[in-house]
Write a structure and sequence with these properties.
mainly alpha, two-stranded antiparallel sheet, 14 helices, 55% helix, 4% strand, globular
């Protein structure tokens, strides 16, 4: 995978990811240094006021303008996007009143959220079907691999991306796997019993969700409401991954991680099938229907894992794998 990290094969141990985290404040938080200014400023007066250095760190405004100018010059959009991401500095942003957190806890980089933020500004400069394949299905338009992806965004951001994979994505998949097990076993919500997606927290962490939220508030200083924003949910999930490794028996931690990886493999297989379908339909000029744009960041969410496997972010194969998951649940 290019934009995705194949955590089933990557030589990157989850324990190492969570115990030896590389803090990336120096990558994300500093202002752009002095650098030569690009000489291809657009004729539009408002855009021309944005001074874009040829190299070095970029502010959000500079990043948007740098990507737009590159695409207007005819540069391939995906390499241009990754080049801008490699120079991005802001760990978070307020967009239309919602908080976009790109760097969770100073350690885990949600690069596809940043990619979506930048592509949303590009309009017709980026083919809609290709952008959707990247953002929704985690399929790079040029078929490049993980090594090329790491080179493009830089080693520090790539390591933070792996932290996100193991600290957020794997944890979401573990909760999803346990939820499906509860459904399959017939442990459905009834009198006095929580729903399977809520009961999964007790099964994985040995404590009910409300108690985990109180522990998180005590350790992080951030209280969580009944409904969480996307950024709050991801920060909580990242904390949960560390809590599980910190408090769980090593054998149980390894077993749970293996369970999450098995779920990822199933969803990745579905994503690959969907990718081949997209490619085949594109060859004959057909438009592949999708669910539409991804959910806006900051929208209220119930505290439950998302039904997805993202080698990075998005639904990423969940649609293709959903029939298999439903079939498993019905076998009981």
């Amino acid at each position: 995978m290019s934009s995705t990290t194949d955590t089933t094969d990557a030589a990157y141990a989850p324990d190492d990811t969570l115990d030896n985290v590389e803090v990336l404040d120096s990558v994300f938080a500093h202002a752009a240094p002095e650098a030569p200014i690009e000489d291809d400023a657009p004729a539009d007066e408002e855009r021309a006021r944005v001074r874009v250095p040829r190299e070095g760190a970029l502010s959000p405004e500079q990043s948007v303008e740098a990507l737009r100018r590159a695409l207007e010059r005819g540069a391939p959009w995906y390499p241009a996007l990754l080049e801008v991401i490699s120079r991005w500095t802001a760990p978070s942003e307020q967009i239309d009143g919602a908080l976009n957190t790109y760097l969770i806890a100073g350690e885990a980089f949600d690069w596809l959220l940043l990619a979506q933020r930048l592509l949303d500004e590009m309009g017709d400069l980026v083919p809609v079907d290709q952008a959707e394949q990247l953002l929704v299905h985690s399929i790079a338009p040029d078929g490049s691999g993980e090594a090329e992806f790491e080179t493009a965004i830089g080693a520090a951001k790539h390591r933070a991306h792996l932290n996100f994979q193991y600290g957020v994505v794997v944890e979401e998949l573990l909760l999803l796997a346990v939820e499906l097990e509860l459904v399959k076993s017939g442990s459905l919500s009834g009198a006095g019993r929580p729903a399977p997606d809520i009961e999964a927290f007790d099964h994985v962490y040995g404590k009910p969700l409300n108690e985990l939220k109180l522990l998180y508030a005590y350790e992080s200083g951030t209280a969580l409401a009944e409904r969480m924003s996307q950024s709050e949910l991801q920060a909580f999930t990242y904390w949960l991954s560390k809590y599980r490794v910190r408090t769980g028996e090593p054998a149980r931690v390894a077993s749970d991680t293996k369970k999450a990886m098995a779920m990822m493999s199933r969803l990745e297989a579905g994503r690959a099938r969907l990718g081949r379908l997209h490619a085949a339909q594109a060859r004959v000029g057909r438009v592949v229907e999708t669910e539409g744009p991804r959910r806006a960041k900051g929208a209220d969410r119930k505290p439950r894992p998302r039904n997805m496997a993202r080698g990075a972010r998005g639904a990423q194969g969940a649609q293709a794998a959903a029939p298999d998951a439903d079939a498993d649940a019905e076998e009981a």
